[in-house]
Design brief:
The protein has one domain: GTP cyclohydrolase II (Rossmann fold, 3-Layer(aba) Sandwich). Helix 3 crosses helix 4. It starts with a strand and ends in an 18-residue tail after the last helix. The protein has about 210 residues and is α/β, with parallel strands linked by helices. It has 7 helices and 7 strands. It is about 30% helix and about 25% strand. It has a 7-stranded mixed sheet, sandwiched between helices. The protein binds guanosine-5'-triphosphate (GTP) and zinc ion. The site of guanosine-5'-triphosphate (GTP) has 23 residues, from helix 2, helix 3 and helix 4. Its EC number is 3.5.4.25.
Length: about 210
Amino acid sequence: MTATLRTDLELPLRFTDGWSTTARVVSFDGLVDGREHVALRLGPAVRREPLVRLHSECLTGDVFGSARCDCGPQLRESLERVAEAGGYLLYLRQEGRGIGLSAKLDAYALQDAGLDTYEANVALGYGEDERDYTVAAQMLQALGERRVALLTNNPDKGRQLAALGIDVTRLVPTGVHRSASNARYLAAKVRHGHLNGHEGASVPVTVQA
Ligand SMILES: Nc1nc2c(ncn2[C@@H]2O[C@H](COP(=O)(O)OP(=O)(O)OP(=O)(O)O)[C@@H](O)[C@H]2O)c(=O)[nH]1
Ligand SMILES: [Zn+2]
């Protein structure tokens, strides 16, 4: 299924600490899951290999500033890095690693009772990570991008995109935004294959057969 560009317009971004940039915000028709995912195009136009961040929605971290996770600081870091390098931030409506907001809050309650972030999902009857990146591949194809560098610590994003026909040349790790409130959460992610703590390294992508 092919997605098409719907609207593409200028969006001035202004932050209270003074950082600002101008993005283009792009919406789409024909995305397979019917949700309203958007792309921000940032920075200089690059002929090959734009820097791309697939950011999974996290209302509590992205909007409210919750320190239980690292999503808020990662979102801001990603905007700045993509604005510098040239590329896209795809804001994917995959709240709670795909299980939704209310279920994520249920999972938080289980974590307060001792489970880790993945065990909590499983205890609620979900997979550890329910995200599928087909819509991200559709968005990149609609934008005319087949070759990207991916800003992430999650190798699964690179593997899934590559399997969907996008040439992912390398994974570029984000910084590590660790605090007393999210340290347990980040440690669980590393146990499940995240590259948090490998900052500065560029990691080649391997696709499983
Ligand atoms: N189910 C669940 N989802 C969570 C929890 N904490 C954060 N999330 C969601 O996890 C998603 C972000 O995933 P992360 O595992 O933090 O990071 P990632 O996207 O896999 O990897 P990066 O690209 O390196 O950021 C967002 O959709 C958040 O809403 C949690 O405890 N339980
Ligand atoms: Zn979060």
